[in-house]
Amino acid sequence: MATVAQWIEGARLRTFPNAIAPVLAGSGAAAGVDEFDPLIALLALAVSVSLITGVNFANDYSDGIRGTDDSRVGPFRLVGSRSARPGAVRNAAFACFGVAALAGLGVVALSGQWWMLAIGALCIAGAWFYTGGSKPYGYAGLGELAVFVFFGLIAVLGTMFVQAGTVSGFGIGAAVGVGALSCAVLVANNLRDIPSDRVTGKRTLAVMLGDRDTRTLYTALALIPFVITVLIGLRNSWALLGFLALPLLLVPLRAVVRGATGRYLIPAVRDTGFAMLAWGAITGLALAFG
């Protein structure tokens, strides 16, 4: 039986910036057009955090029963370590998806945007089939694209839309920036796992590109948000404060560029997430008050 501490570790709290940053950025964009709704924002945050927790448990379950995690270097896995029964981890994922669905129902009820129930269903399906099902798209090199869409475009613009009833150019820029950094987190994670993923047949984008090109991709994704910062800053000078997040990327960028491998890339995954959270929060505040 897994301990409470192991269940918490299995939830992978270090990935929560991927869920929090888009809600902060989207809420800031909504406030920028004077339509911030704190209750809807909190419910959107509950949706996002529940979804990413469900994704983490679902990945733990699906990768664990396939044996993908048997030789992986990385964070603790409940199924792969044999600490929890696969069925229990699967049920934990479904429970998180249920919480996300309930919170999402509250969002659409308060906003009146009932058509977004379809978007919510798509997000839950995307969370499960990333590594679940007979043909998981995460095993076909589509993980980064899904992260960009779900935790970038949908999360940021969806958060803005349910509060403001519209999206803005600034909101789109914030969505692209958060999505790029969220992708960078996954790229760093998959870069670390290239050797084990090749052995188990998990064809991530990193496996397809190879070590060198994956490092180049990470660097490009990590720097895209600061291009967005400059573009937004042309009309909102407060957005230039987004460069305060850049120092948080210096250490992971150095590790990736200099060829770090295996467990030495674990801090790069974590630090990229922190940089994303900082950039999303600062950019959201700039859009709200700038």
Automatic annotation (TrEMBL):
<protein>
    <recommendedName>
        <fullName>1,4-dihydroxy-2-naphthoate octaprenyltransferase</fullName>
        <ecNumber>2.5.1.74</ecNumber>
    </recommendedName>
</protein>
<feature type="transmembrane region" description="Helical">
    <location>
        <begin position="114"/>
        <end position="133"/>
    </location>
</feature>
<keyword id="KW-1133">Transmembrane helix</keyword>
<dbReference type="GO" id="GO:0042371">
    <property type="term" value="P:vitamin K biosynthetic process"/>
</dbReference>
<dbReference type="GO" id="GO:0009234">
    <property type="term" value="P:menaquinone biosynthetic process"/>
</dbReference>
<dbReference type="InterPro" id="IPR000537">
    <property type="entry name" value="UbiA_prenyltransferase"/>
</dbReference>
<comment type="pathway">
    <text>Quinol/quinone metabolism; menaquinone biosynthesis; menaquinol from 1,4-dihydroxy-2-naphthoate: step 1/2.</text>
</comment>
<comment type="similarity">
    <text>Belongs to the MenA family. Type 1 subfamily.</text>
</comment>
<comment type="function">
    <text>Conversion of 1,4-dihydroxy-2-naphthoate (DHNA) to demethylmenaquinone (DMK).</text>
</comment>
<feature type="transmembrane region" description="Helical">
    <location>
        <begin position="88"/>
        <end position="108"/>
    </location>
</feature>
<keyword id="KW-1003">Cell membrane</keyword>
<feature type="transmembrane region" description="Helical">
    <location>
        <begin position="39"/>
        <end position="58"/>
    </location>
</feature>
<feature type="transmembrane region" description="Helical">
    <location>
        <begin position="240"/>
        <end position="257"/>
    </location>
</feature>
<feature type="transmembrane region" description="Helical">
    <location>
        <begin position="145"/>
        <end position="164"/>
    </location>
</feature>
<feature type="transmembrane region" description="Helical">
    <location>
        <begin position="217"/>
        <end position="234"/>
    </location>
</feature>
<keyword id="KW-0474">Menaquinone biosynthesis</keyword>
<keyword id="KW-0808">Transferase</keyword>
<dbReference type="GO" id="GO:0046428">
    <property type="term" value="F:1,4-dihydroxy-2-naphthoate polyprenyltransferase activity"/>
</dbReference>
<feature type="transmembrane region" description="Helical">
    <location>
        <begin position="170"/>
        <end position="188"/>
    </location>
</feature>
<dbReference type="InterPro" id="IPR004657">
    <property type="entry name" value="MenA"/>
</dbReference>
<dbReference type="GO" id="GO:0005886">
    <property type="term" value="C:plasma membrane"/>
</dbReference>
<feature type="transmembrane region" description="Helical">
    <location>
        <begin position="269"/>
        <end position="289"/>
    </location>
</feature>
<dbReference type="Pfam" id="PF01040">
    <property type="entry name" value="UbiA"/>
</dbReference>
<dbReference type="InterPro" id="IPR026046">
    <property type="entry name" value="UBIAD1"/>
</dbReference>
<keyword id="KW-0472">Membrane</keyword>
<keyword id="KW-0812">Transmembrane</keyword>
